[in-house]
Amino acid sequence: MNTLNSSAYHLAIARCKRAMMLGAAIVVGLLSRSVLAEAPPNVVFILADDLGWSDTTLFDTTDLYRTPNIERLAERGMTFTRAYSASPLCSPTRASILTGLSPARHGITSPNCHLPTVTLTAKATESAPPNQKATIPTSVSRLNVNYYTLAEMLRDHGYATGHFGKWHLGAEPYSPLEHGFDVDVPHHPGPGPAGSYVAPWKFKDFDHDPDIPDEHLEDRMAEEAVTFMETHQDKPFFLNYWMFSVHAPFDAKAALVDKYRNRINQDDPQRSPTYAAMIESMDDAVGTLLDTLDRLNLAENTIIIFASDNGGNMYNEVDGTTPTSNTPLRGGKATMYEGGVRGPAVVAYPGHVEPGSRSDEIIQSCDFYPTLLDLLQIQAQPSQEFDGISIVPALQGQSLTREAIFTYFPHAPRVPDWLPPAVSVIAGDWKLIRTFYGGDAGTHQYQLFNLETDIGEQHDLAEQFPDRVQDLDRLIEEFLSDTHAVVPLPNPRFDVSQYHPELIGKGNHKSSGNQKRTQNRVPAKPVAGWLPGGTCELSHEADSLVVKSSGGDPHLSYKLPNALPGEKLTVSFTMTSTAAGPGQVFWQEQGVAPAFFRERSKTFDVRHDSQPHQYRVVLTVHHPVLAIRIDPATAAGRITLSNVAVTTEGTEISLFPPRNEDAGVEHRKQ
User: Fold this and answer.
1) With a threshold of 0.85, does the pTM exceed it?
2) C-alpha angle with apex 602: 651 to 563, nearest 5 degrees?
3) How far apart (Å, rounded) are the C-alpha atoms in residues 512 and 14?
């Protein structure tokens, strides 16, 4: 079933299931809480996007980047030198963090969760183009609501839950709000930030601060996370801060780009000033969270996990080079080599994890869920299983009793160092990569590496150690069977005359397309006090504001000179439009974040017939109002507004046209 109707069916089934689970969860929670001598610890999970193993200063692998706050976090806890993502791409790893399951089991093996097709079950593909030896299965495209996620578990045990940043596991009805999170900001289902990192952005219901025209998205996300922690400081909270950084598009604060441009060494494989600036903004956000935990006196009772969803990007082109380099590791994002799946990871928990410690134990994304349950003394559901294990022994300085970890990636994106559909196993120092049907006569192809002596995976030892290949491949087969993985099949259309094995691993670098915008960014300027945003240009003609919309999300906002009290406000205006779509009015309330959010908005019908019409939108508010935003349409066209006013408690304030040279407003009693 691949329709939205089937999605609604699954949602209903999941809700019934959770209702049954909740009773057991409450009993287990009460028993668990009685064991704890202190208040339950808060949980802060920071997931960086595309952050490579050499993108921080944790391992002495960079001379360019600066990450003092990540180092500061490491001083509070344990740094893992062998931390692996569940996949070399983002969505599969994210699903594994929330479920504790391998991508081979939950079925999300590709980052396709922003695409319109809803697929809830992985499917084998019967054939492929004739130049490929193996077929590529169809990936699941949404995180099924039947899974009892980490957020649901913690919420059912009394935690306030908030998700901030990137999601990429499906829009409603598969958003964070359906997976156990009370709060989701900016409620964006896309694969990266909407348009850019530096305002203006193009999120549907999330605008930048009108007072900060060049606001950086990560600064704002950290600010939203701070508000969440302040709001819930008197009860346990789960803050899921999944950064947009340092994923494409590649743009950053202009001053930081200039700063790093003067530090570039052309002989260093890390030589993009834009990417270095993005790293610094990411690190600043980590510092903001640490500062807040310290200020609120919460740091001593908070578990912090910092990790990356996959390796660093080695295939885009930025500043005339790749965004980063994962040296000494081979490959990067979207590859099966170490550079695609190995990244930085830190776990801090005062009193439980030795400050400034390091571990060479092997950990993976699906370990975090069972580890948190172990640390919080929460029992899993009776029928709940994990592919990951608790790494608490490692956090206590001991060894882990695991045989191996696996990476399942049955796809073949054409990036540098790519492989056809493959699966790998790491057991101790040994790593075996199986390329499905990549050998002769329909056999698999293997690469064997000793990571202790060859961290860069330059020496294939498969022919030298055939018995070890056989033993490790047996583990792979058991893993695929246990997870019920939908695997590639031999391609019946394979034509050896069209097969070019010399092209395997060869990829082209792609431009990010954002360089000119980063360096020559011109902030939007207010027009008669109104600040344009989204997909529009704003001008002033006679007694009208003229909005030229290029489609999507045109809007304009106005900061009031004084906060307006009252429980009801009426926004009125005359509007003429040649665009299409409904209109929407947002308002910003004092002491409530974010500034403009869908829960503080009101839609209204618009007549797009090129004729002037009067509109009155009544808003029910709970705190004094600081600003108003009007979204006049959702399509391209020309829109004019005049006689814009807001009325509250018998007082009307003119927002346009200005009637006072100083404030641009006029107050009069009705």
Assistant:
1) no
2) 40
3) 40
